[in-house]
Amino acid sequence: MERAFSLREDHPLHCWIRGLTEYTFMQRLGMGDPGIVDYLSALLISGVATETLNPASDPFPSADLGTLYELQNIARQGSSEIATEAFRRLGDRNLFLTGVFPESVERRNAWRSGDLRMMTLTGKRAYQVAGELDRTQAPMMHRLSECFEVCAKGLREVRQAWEDESATNRDRRIWGVPG
């Protein structure tokens, strides 16, 4: 999976995110799929640079069923490579937001009920279509589509773990306790 932003694998932030993701998915959730864990670690690491999730130049800034419809029309008319990337990115964005920042999705669209569920359905479908358009990505895209909700739950737990870690470190600094 090619990402616009990456950290070296030996970078401390990369190692920390990777470790939290592995622990959460493999130990806490019992998801022993290293491919999924690798993909989700890369997704979280790319989220460090927020413009990779919602760049200003993105022609599809929304993440709803209308976006899926537009992307399917593009796929029918032209380059399946461009459409595959767009579907994958839509799935990634929806998984990241529903997993790491679900309250943001709910708060942003508080006047519409079911936005979190709609983003989940759209993300699942986006991954499914990306896999249908590119057979080389099909196994991973279909697994992400099938276990979207578990992945989102795991990403929420990873976020909780880093918040807990941050609070612990903050409290240590406040009270002068060595790390």
Description of the molecule:
With 179 residues, the protein is an all-alpha fold. It has one domain. Helices cover 71% and strands 0% of the residues. The chain is built from eight helices and no strands. It has helices spanning 12-28, 34-46, 65-77, 80-100, 102-108, 115-133, 138-146, 148-175. The longest helix has 28 residues, at 148-175. The radius of gyration is 17 Å and the shape is globular. The relative contact order is 0.13. The model is unreliable at 55-61 (pLDDT under 50).
Question: Topology of this structure?
Answer:
Blueprint: H1 12-28, H2 34-46, H3 65-77, H4 80-100, H5 102-108, H6 115-133, H7 138-146, H8 148-175
Helix pairs in contact: 1-2, 1-8, 3-4, 4-5, 4-6, 4-8, 6-7
Structural classification: mainly alpha
> Helix proportion of residues, in percent?
over 70%
Q: Count the DSSP helices.
A: 8
Global Rg: 17 Å
Summarize the structure.
This protein has 179 residues and is mainly α.
Keywords:
mainly alpha, single chain, 8 helices, 179 residues
